Amino acid sequence: MQLSRTEQNYLKAIYMIGALSSETIGASTNSIAMRIETRPASVSDMVRRLSEKGLVNHNRYRGVTLTECGLQQALVIVRRHRLWEHFLVHVLGFRWDEIHEIAEELEHVSHPELIARLDAFLGNPTEDPHGELIPGAQLQMPHRPTESMHSLPPGAQARVVCVDEGSDGLLKYLDEIELRPGAIFTVVSVEHFDQSMRIRRVDESVWRITREVSNSVQVERMGS
Ligand SMILES: [Zn+2]
Question: Is the pTM of this model over 0.85?
Answer without folding.
Answer: yes
